[in-house]
Specification:
By secondary structure, this protein is of the alpha+beta class. The chain has two domains: 228 residues, Helicase, Ruva Protein, domain 3; 58 residues, no CATH class. The protein contains 14 helices and seven strands. The strands form two sheets. Strands 4-6-7-3-5 form a five-stranded antiparallel β-sheet. A two-stranded antiparallel ribbon has the order 1-2. The longest helix has 22 residues. It is globular. The relative contact order is 0.16. The structure holds calcium ion. The site of calcium ion has 8 residues, from loops.
Length: 367
């Protein structure tokens, strides 16, 4: 779900189902800890061939990957030859990725924050978040009890990622990951690992790999988990025996668990405004962290109380009306573990606040 946030507007459609909520269960063990050399007794889907045909025929890297999957995970090569003969090369995805280039460098442009924020602080995002909260209040409450993450931040993530399941992506995950693993050299190592994770995931969950759809980069479900995140952090929040990223309850629990496992501090704030001098002498960004004395030495102070001892990120947001400086606390940094972006974490925070305000206002009979 890292690079997908900026790309999510390009995905369309998707639906969710709603089931009764049952109590949460303990966090799933990390599947890589339970990997086995034994061959699976059943394989999801019916695939068999003696070599790869179709779009990915004659790719030596893919042939090597298939032998690796057989050796490490016990998935027979004939099954994989058959499966990858069904994979489609997505030229549009490659063209799009090549146009994006690397991460942007230097100071963001004036007004960039206002432009970004306006995409996500919409009436649709806020009202759909409130509606989701009402519909799934027990799952959200149980997630807060278990993981210490307030509902509004889980909702902020789901709103930004998919507008609560509206935009979960329509690309077959197998096509997306195979294309990016073997035809996009710049991120080949990352997407090859995610393709491996995906194949482990469909074995573990016994799902036909051709059935799963997601973003064009392979992110899945309401929270747009990549397969590696699924293996490490997805949970069966509604205890139906499956970890289902497309089910609202499991998506809620999995996002909360993701935050918890990345060190969320229950009850602590996320950001405070910064009081700054006319010239700010320090580099800014979620990964530029300072102690209070370091900030005070250059005339920067928190606008309200912050937990003692936290390192603070100095954040610059360039709005239409001018520059704003904020201090990101520990939990702000945790949100950036979902997507390594100051804008992303700040918009999740702002959407979370807006949803909570509307939800509480409505609950109190206002609005
Ligand atoms: Ca489940």
């Amino acid at each position: 779900m890292k690079i997908e946030a900026l790309l999510l507007l390009l995905t369309l459609g998707g639906c969710t189902s709603h089931k009764a909520v049952t109590p949460v269960q303990p966090v799933q063990p990390h599947p890589t800890e339970t990997r086995t050399e034994a061959r699976p007794t059943t394989l999801p889907g019916h695939f068999s061939a003696s070599r790869v045909t179709g779009d990915f025929a004659g790719y030596p890297q893919l042939d090597g990957f298939i032998l690796h999957m057989e050796a490490v995970h016990g998935i027979p090569r004939n099954y994989l030859y058959g499966l990858f003969s069904q994979a489609h090369r997505r030229q549009w995805t490659l063209d799009y990725m090549n146009r994006q280039g690397g991460p942007s460098q230097g100071k963001p442009r004036q007004g960039s924050w206002s432009k970004y924020r306006a995409q996500f602080l919409t009436e649709l995002h806020i009202e759909s978040g409130v509606a989701f909260w009402r519909r799934h209040a027990p799952a959200l409450r149980q997630a807060e009890e278990r993981y210490g993450v307030p509902p509004e931040y889980i909702l902020g993530i789901m709103g930004v990622e998919t507008i609560y399941g509206r935009n979960m992506g329509k690309d077959r995950v197998l096509d997306a990951l195979t294309t990016l693993a073997f035809d996009y050299p710049r991120r080949s190592a990352y997407f090859t690992e995610e393709l491996e994770n995906f194949l482990v995931m469909v074995q573990t969950e016994n799902i036909d790999p051709l059935e799963l759809r997601g973003s064009f980069a392979g992110a899945m479900g309401l929270g747009q988990f990549m397969p590696g995140s699924f293996l490490k952090w997805a949970v069966d929040h509604n205890l139906d025996g499956r970890r289902d990223l497309w089910h609202p309850d499991d998506a809620v629990g999995s996002i909360a668990n993701y935050f918890s496992e990345h060190g969320w501090h229950p009850g602590e704030p996320v950001v405070v405004q910064a009081l700054v001098p006319a010239d700010v002498a320090l580099p800014t960004g979620y990964d530029q962290q300072y102690s209070l004395p370091e900030l005070a030495a250059v005339g920067i102070y928190p606008g309200s109380e912050v937990p003692a001892g936290d390192k603070l990120s100095l954040l610059l947001l360039r709005g239409n009306a001018g520059d704003e400086y904020w201090l990101g606390l520990h939990n702000f940094f945790v949100i950036t573990r979902y997507n390594h972006s100051t804008h992303y974490a700040m918009v999740v925070h702002d959407l979370a606040k807006a949803i909570k305000q509307r939800y509480l206002g409505a609950a109190a009979g206002g609005l």
